[in-house]
Amino acid sequence: MQPLQTRRQFLQIGSLTIASGAIAIGSHQSLTQGTDESSLVTHQLLALTPACGTGGPTPSRTAGPFYTPNSPKRSSLIEPGINGTKLILTGKVLNRTCQPMARALVDVWQADQAGNYDNSGYKLRGHQFTDSQGRYRLETIVPGLYPGRVRHIHVAVQVANQPLLTTQLFFPGEAGNASDGLFNPVLLLRMNSTRTKNQAVFNFVLA
Description:
This protein is mainly beta.
């Protein structure tokens, strides 16, 4: 088995480019508004990720102003100094005919528990590659609310030599979802949680 490519090598192949975009304009929300992190534990999402081939490709969303290139390759963003409600996010990268996309880049960045981004380092930033079945698995935390935005996670997905998908994933039950300028119900995480941990599923469908 050949070793995994480094992110730099992958980007040279796929010419990954993420353009910063404007943060959506919305009302300021504090952590006490809407659904708090503890309530995510018992919430069940009914809507599913769009079916490949029928629901169309996963919608794109702006990368926002806080993307940092060359994040470390890792499947867990949990490290010393990271506090918050643990979240395990799993899923697949698929094409329009439901075929799994092996070796797809999945690059993630998000706010911390207080809604702050690390713009000087790589806390809560990382990338990985899907396995032979197109699967990814990420350990992170439930992000806090960035001022003017609803709770969300940024993700960029790309198969070598194919167009880049940059999008955002949203949490069910958030009071601010409907008023967030970038929200799309198709991008809702499917939650399957217990009292001890939050588990979420999202399958990315590439055009």
